[in-house]
Design a protein that fits this description.
It contains eight helices and 16 strands. About 25% of the residues lie in helices and about 25% in strands. The strands form three sheets. A nine-stranded mixed β-sheet has the order 9-8-7-10-6-1-4-5-11, with helices on both faces. The longest helix has 14 residues. Helix 5 packs parallel to helix 8.
Length: about 325
């Protein structure tokens, strides 16, 4: 099978949790091969990221360029076309950059493209058997992908258990000189930081998170009561923010905050990839939803099929008794 590469996300020298998840996904594609990694950026922290990744990947291809201090999908797409072998299989995390970069890259490389992959069922030669979700997670689609001319895939964060083995013993290969002309039609201007809220949920160890199942703004009180009993903070999914019941600083998801709690209670939350994309670090997830087919149950450690409006007050009462 062709070489498999994972595109490594990092910021200020800190590697994103998806780096080891992509390593696990790559091994499900080809258990007999050691995947490679691509690390793009600039500054001293780039070397630290590369050196960290050699424990999990066979080769770590480093591309250092001051023009890509901030990851520009158009620019990175050009350099990947220049450095990658023609039939490569390239894995991205299914988040902002991956969703922007991957589709166009597959066109440039004339290779197959599959988005939001949640599982790899196996491979038959160059044919990959993949699972992705459609209709907001209500349907699991089993698809085949002809990777004989390469493939570009985005893998859902959290769908693959991180590969913590770190026994690859890889090496860093500097590909900076092969990046070529990176002139593009758009350029990075600035990062606008979100306003700080009354609670910084990014630092919370326990979160009680509410979704559509809360039904009414007045019902938020039961979530706050449970959070108080647990010593937790209250967060939410996007519909709660759109309804202006809670401030955006409490929203978890790709369009909200990225959180890394130890325990995450998903109350009345369906579990769309936009929401789950904001949860990192493999927390212990407890899902409470009256729909037994809700996608959240596929990633939950404990699932409770019940109406959160009935279940949460009972749970609060039991915790207070203890």
């Amino acid at each position: 099978m062709a070489q498999i590469f994972s595109y490594i996300l990092h910021k200020d020298g800190v590697v994103d949790d998806t780096a080891l998840e992509l390593a696990a996904a790559a091994k499900k594609i080809d258990a007999g091969a050691t995947p490679n990694a691509i690390v793009v950026g600039s500054g001293d922290s780039l070397d630290a990221v590369c050196n960290e990744m050699v424990a999990s990947y066979g080769e770590v291809w480093k591309v250092a360029n001051d023009a890509i201090t901030y990851p520009d999908a158009e620019m990175i797409r050009k350099l990947l076309v220049n450095i990658l072998p023609a039939d490569s299989i390239l894995l991205f995390a299914h988040e902002h950059l991956g969703m922007d970069l991957a589709p166009g890259l597959s066109v440039k490389m004339d290779s197959a493209f599959v988005s939001d992959v949640v599982d790899v069922e196996g491979a038959d030669g160059a044919t990959l058997k993949l699972v992705r979700q459609e209709f907001g997670g209500a349907v699991s689609a089993h698809v085949t992908c002809d990777a004989s001319q390469g493939a570009v895939m985005t893998m859902r964060p959290g769908a693959f258990a991180a590969d913590e083995s770190k026994g690859a013993g890889g090496q860093v290969v500097d590909k900076s000189a092969e990046a070529g002309d990176l002139a593009v039609n758009r350029k990075f201007l600035e990062i606008v930081e979100a306003e700080a809220g009354d609670v910084d949920i990014t630092k919370s160890e326990v979160l009680v998170s509410c979704g559509r199942g809360i039904e009414d703004e007045e019902n938020l009180e039961i979530a706050f009561d449970l959070a108080k009993a647990m010593g937790a903070d209250v967060s939410c999914s996007r519909p709660i923010v759109d309804a202006k019941w809670l401030p955006k600083a409490r929203q978890v998801g790709t369009s909200g905050q990225t959180v890394k709690p130890k325990v995450y209670l998903a109350c009345g939350i369906s579990g769309s990839f936009q929401h789950m994309g904001g949860i990192k670090g493999n927390p212990f997830i407890v899902a409470i939803n009256k729909n037994p087919k809700a996608p959240i149950f596929q990633v939950a450690d404990v699932g409770v099929v019940d109406d959160m409006l009935d279940f949460l007050p009972e749970l609060t009462e039991k915790i207070e008794e203890l």
